Amino acid sequence: MTVHHNGFGCMKILVLLSRFPYPLEKGDKLRAYHQIRHLAKNHEIHLCALNDIQIKPEYRKALDPFCKSVHVIDLPRVSAAWNIVKAFLTGKPLQVGYFFNANAKKQINRIINEIQPDHIFCQLIRVTEYVRDMKIPKTLDYQDVFSKGVDRRRQSARFYMKPVLRLEYKRLLKYEHDIFSDFDHKTIISAPDRDLIPHPDREKIEVVINGVDTDFFRPMPMEKEYDLVFTGNMGYPPNVNAANFLVKEILPLVRQKLPEVKVMLAGATPHPSVQALAGKNVTVTGWVDDIRECYGKARIFIAPMRIGTGLQNKLLEAMAMKIPSITSQLANSALKATPEQEILVGQSAQEFAAHILRLLEDATYANEIAKNGYTFVHQNYNWASATRKLENLMVNTP
Predict the structure, then answer these.
(1) How far from 366 is each of 198, 222, 318, CA to CA, in Å?
(2) How far apart are CA 161 and CA 303, in angstroms?
(3) In Å, how far are 22, 48, 75, 101, 382 from 51, measured between CA atoms?
(4) Looking at the structure, do residues 243 and 361 belong to the same domain, yes or no?
(5) Do 347 and 388 fall within a single domain?
(6) How far, in Å, CA of 373 to CA of 375, rounded?
(7) Which pLDDT tens digits describe the chain residue by residue (398 residues)?
(8) Angle at the Cα of 163 from the Cα atoms of 158 and 168, rounded to 5 degrees
(9) CB count, 10 Å around CB of 66?
(10) What DSSP element (H or E) covers 383?
(11) Which of 28, 38, 358, 360 would you label with 194, given CA atoms 20 to 30 Å apart?
(12) Same domain for 285 and 183?
């Protein structure tokens, strides 16, 4: 491997993403942004992002300090529909098909020829078709296990979606397996996710956790206007499912004892079923400029996740702001906080309701959970140390 020295002994790294990593309203963007930010301290970063929306100039500016070059490759919606059809016919997963475009492939090849990167870093299997055959050292961040995510969605899907999701599940299983050997290194967000990758050598996948920006997400003394807050991209199926579960099943149990409990559902692009939850003492915000205010205005953070995979950044953020937090066993299996000490963990609507009532009625206990959660996040979730693990993989490629 040729390493280009420019005073720092740095590598040229091409980062290939399925969408532009700003603003930070989605988990994959947040992860990519902070990884780029830390890799840029020692290496020359060239960002190549696929895109199907309008990118504002200030979004690009947010990446300029960390990237030697920024390339945005537009995926026209019309061709995306045709690409899904092609994927269907050729046996590829539909979401891999959606992101693959022959014209984009030519542009990426040209960028790689110009830059001559020492290493290619791909986030998510959505972009792997572009580079899987290239003889340049490569790392794939699976991040989440798409196959398992689709399988969980399938369980609760409408009857007409079940056959589509079953087909996509089987194709993703095969693709996640097949892509494994095309990359020198593989990373993933948590050990439970790694154990779900359908490959016999899954143990070789490095767990690279997310961090939390504790300078940004820190305790903010604010007047408490809400009892409960749940945040996230409210168009994302696991969040849509959790929001509905919270308002329709958990909240009625809490209101048997505390009828005036107030809830805020905060986050971008709320699904129509989330918008429909708005009503007496339930606020649906849509996009907010500063999500910290949503955490700060609430007494309790709750993320009753029942589907989806990966680490919930929202939990890290809330705990870093010293908000007592409640989540599910599914979400805590990745987080690994200690139940009853650093976080409260529920499964059924009854368990979640009992946790909410206990925190609302016992301020001392709520403060203790908040304080321990805050310490846990500071000790375990750090972007600099997490990204160092990723950097070491790349630098030590044979």
Answers:
(1) 40, 16, 13
(2) 26
(3) 11, 10, 6, 11, 29
(4) yes
(5) no
(6) 5
(7) 344 433 345 899 999 999 999 999 888 999 999 999 999 999 999 999 999 888 999 999 999 999 999 999 999 888 888 889 999 899 999 999 999 999 999 999 999 999 999 999 999 999 999 999 999 999 999 999 999 999 988 988 899 999 999 999 999 999 999 999 999 999 999 999 999 999 999 999 999 999 999 999 999 999 999 999 999 999 999 999 999 999 999 999 999 999 999 999 999 999 999 999 999 999 999 999 999 999 999 999 999 999 877 778 999 999 999 999 999 999 999 999 999 999 999 999 999 999 999 999 999 999 999 999 999 999 999 999 999 999 999 998 77
(8) 110
(9) 19
(10) helix 383-395
(11) 38
(12) no
Whole-angstrom CA distances from 291 to 31, 224, 229, 266 are 17, 15, 11, 8
Residues 18 and 31 in one domain: yes
Query: Is 4 among the domain residues?
Result: no
Are residues 76 and 199 located together in one domain of the fold?
yes
Half-sphere exposure (CA, 13 Å, Cβ side) for 179?
31
CB 9 within 8 A of CB 41: no
Strand order in the sheet with 185-188: 69-74, 44-51, 12-17, 119-123, 138-143, 185-188, 206-207
Split into its structural domains, the chain has a count of 2
Residue 125, token pair as written in the block: 């299997």
Is this model's pTM higher than 0.70 or not? Answer: yes
The amino acid at 310: G
Instruction: Kindly list the distances between the CA atom of residue 15 and the CA atoms of 38, 141, 217, in Å, as whole numbers in the listed order.
Output: 13, 11, 26
Structure tokens at 151: 């399988």
